[in-house]
Amino acid sequence: MSEHGEVSDAIKDVDAEAAHTTAHADRVATPDEEQTADAQSGALTDSVREHEKDMMETGANVKGEGAME
């Protein structure tokens, strides 16, 4: 941003392109990454597992942006 708060044309172009882009994952995890994640899952404590479960249930039941029931 410039000294006067003006937005450059380059930023405007990137913003315009991003506004028409659908969100998506970058890529699928490699077998090596999956194996590492599986190996690390054993390091989680029961309280972390419970918290993750609670958050997944909360996220699945959200009725609108920021609304929890």
Question: How is this structure best described in words?
Answer:
- The structure is a single chain.
- By secondary structure, the chain is mostly helical.
- The longest helix has 15 residues, at 46-60.
- The relative contact order is 0.06.
- The mean pLDDT is 83.
- It has one domain (3-61).
- It has helices spanning 9-19, 31-41, 46-60.
Question: Share of helix among residues?
Answer: 40-55%
How many E-type strands?
Answer: 0
**Total helical elements:** 3
Please provide the ordered H/E string of secondary-structure elements. HHH
Q: What is the averaged pLDDT score? A: 83
What is the alpha-carbon Rg in Å?
A: 20 Å
The N- and C-terminal alpha carbons lie at a distance of 40 Å
Region (Disordered): 1-69
Biased composition (Basic and acidic residues): 1-30, 47-56
List the helices and strands and how they pair.
Layout: H1 9-19, H2 31-41, H3 46-60
List keywords for this structure.
mainly alpha; extended; 69 residues
Short description:
With 69 residues, the chain is mainly α. It is built from three helices and no strands.
